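[User] Could I get a sequence and structure tokens?

[Assistant]
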Amino acid sequence: MKDAFDSYFSKLNDYAKEVFGTNPTVTYTDSLNKSCLISEPDEDDEVEWKPVPQKAAVSWKEIEDDLGFVMCDELKAYYSTYAFLMLSGKFGNSLLNFYPVDATEPVVETIKREYEDAQMVFKDSQIFLIGNAIVNEDDGYFIYYDNKSNKLFCYESDTQNEVLLSYSIAKTVGVMEARM
């Protein structure tokens, strides 16, 4: 997972410098993880940021006891490698926007929330809601990860249309084209 993140964040830095002449930016809020920030907010309340290695120890046993199942290694690595404020890009015919990890809340809370949010659509599953997407110009899709099968997919609830991205978060993140 680390190699995939490093590849993506390198592409994101190059993209931001080429298109905007800055490091990657997000809209500033007081709740952002300050360790990721590398500038003060500008006149548009945009702030430059960078991913930082996760420092907080995660009690996987406690989380897994709460969830009622063991999380796969890839999902653990996704949540515990870097704190990041944005992870967006183009993958095939999809524009993917993964939700930030450790951006405004402890990673344990992010994991629990993303699991609980997925249960609204996929009850009694081991699926996590980890982002939103635009697929074929339809912005009604969300990105899900199935802990049991390692399937990363987009799903649109109204049409019940599912689009498989891959069987690896790392593969998808590592090859997607960075966008802001």
Observations:
- The first helix runs from residue 2 to 20.
- Residues 12 and 18 are 10 Å apart (CA to CA).
